[in-house]
Specification:
By secondary structure, this protein is α/β, with parallel strands linked by helices. It contains 13 helices and 12 strands. The protein folds into 2 domains: 4-9 and 88-391, TIM Barrel (Alpha-Beta Barrel), CATH 3.20.20; 22-83, Orthogonal Bundle (DNA polymerase, domain 1). Helices cover 34% and strands 16% of the residues. Bound molecules: iron/sulfur cluster (SF4).
């Protein structure tokens, strides 16, 4: 069951702690970063333009370690290294799919492993990133929850996935990242302090437009309401997966804490406040949540929330007998939704040939070769299909 730590603001005891006490520049909002740098350089008697120089190194496409900021005098670089950290994630592995999907397993400073996925789709390049190491919410269709919660990621570790993936993408011919989705490991609204800062860093620092950043949640109502208080128009995706409370509770234990009517009300308010459509994610599991009789209620909820519906064939996970709905069933859902006036799309899985379901690489790395039998950890509906394509919240979205 969720608890206050896993579901609420970051618990500093469970975040990676900098042994040196030096602040991570990537974990500061751009305004805080400038203030910290200005103080630092001011105390050293360095010219004010040093702050802008370092800012460019942090957020610009040439960003590198302090040592590689070669337009700074060596003494300045040394001083930066003494005063600050720069979270640099090192890739434990990278897997590339025939369809272009590229998945990174990143090693954090304390040995935790997290994943991010790059999904090219036409002119769009979407990065799906993780917000927690593990997850405490235990959704039954998602293997991420099975392994439990390890710790919150800090904002620099979330933004660091972007920075490291961006460098890799540029070096490997993928081009610029155009969209970001918080749909990897963990529930972003259960790590709101880090989420909020990282959103500001991605938007205000790295320059990813708010409308090109989507936060996905299984329905943490206070988090949805907090997100709606922000001035930016970030996208919101709700992992719905069932339109009836009893059925949803079988899939998402959090339903008991935040009942569906409350969640839908929060999503509806978010849409009204932000004036942008939200997305329902609906993973289709054969014989579990794909009965045609569910369509009218799903359509009603989508109408109430003003939502676009993504239908996502379930990605089977070990130790779970569930399988994906038949293609004909998925198509019938889509047709029925459209007949009800609800915009809906079927999302194709990505990166199947690299076992790119979220958490697979991490599980294997943690368990060693025997990890092949380890339950596959999954993002919010068990695979990277959510990453790129689910980021699209409908035809009104700007395309990359
Ligand atoms: S679907 Fe999301 S919230 Fe649920 S267990 Fe998986 S990562 Fe956690």
């Amino acid at each position: 069951m969720p608890n206050a730590t896993a579901e609420g603001a970051a618990d500093p005891r469970r975040e990676e702690r900098a042994p040196t006490g030096r602040p991570d520049l990537l974990g500061l909002a751009p305004g805080e970063l400038e203030t910290a740098l200005a103080r630092h350089f001011g105390a050293l008697g360095e010219p004010a333009y040093r702050t802008a120089q370092v800012r460019r190194w942090i957020y610009g496409p040439e960003a590198a370690s302090f040592d590689r900021m070669d337009n700074l005098p060596a003494a300045v670089r040394t001083g930066l290294g003494r005063a600050f950290r720069l979270a640099t994630l090192s890739p434990r592995s990278v897997s590339r799919s025939r369809d272009g999907t590229a998945k990174h397993l990143w090693a954090l400073r304390d040995g935790e492993l997290v994943e991010s996925v790059l999904i090219p789709e036409g002119r769009r390049l979407t990065l799906c990133l993780s917000s927690q190491a593990g997850c405490a919410l235990g959704c039954t269709f998602c293997a991420t929850g099975w392994a439990g919660f390890s710790r919150q990621l800090g904002p620099g570790e979330i933004a660091g996935q972007f920075r490291a993936a961006r460098a890799w993408a540029l070096a490997n011919g993928y081009g610029r990242i155009t969209h970001v989705v918080y749909m990897g490991m963990g529930e972003p609204l259960a790590n709101r302090a880090a989420l909020n800062t990282s959103l500001t860093v991605l938007n205000g620092g790295f320059g990813i437009g708010a409308r090109r950043i989507t936060v996905s949640t299984v329905g943490i109502v206070p988090g949805i309401r907090e997100l709606s208080e922000r001035p930016e128009q970030f996208g919101l995706a709700l992992s719905l997966h069932a339109p009836l409370p009893e059925l949803r509770a079988r899939l998402i234990p959090l339903e008991k804490r935040y009942p569906l009517p409350e969640v839908i009300a929060a999503v509806r308010d978010y849409r009204a406040r932000k004036r942008r459509r939200v997305t329902f994610e609906y993973t289709m599991i054969r014989g579990v949540n794909d009965d045609p009789s569910l369509v009218p209620e799903l359509a009603r909820l989508a109408r109430e929330a003003g939502a676009f519906v993504n239908l996502i064939p379930f990605n089977p996970i070990p130790d779970r007998e569930w399988v994906a709905s038949r293609p004909s069933t998925v198509e019938r859902f889509r047709t029925s939704l459209r007949a009800s006036g609800i915009e809906a799309a079927v999302r194709r899985p990505r990166g199947r040939d690299i076992d790119a379901a979220c958490g697979q690489l991490r599980a294997t790395a943690v368990a060693g070769p025997a990890g092949a039998g380890t339950p596959e950890r999954g993002c919010r509906s068990g695979g990277p299909r959510l990453s790129g394509s689910a980021a699209r919240t409908g035809p009104s979205e700007p395309r990359g």
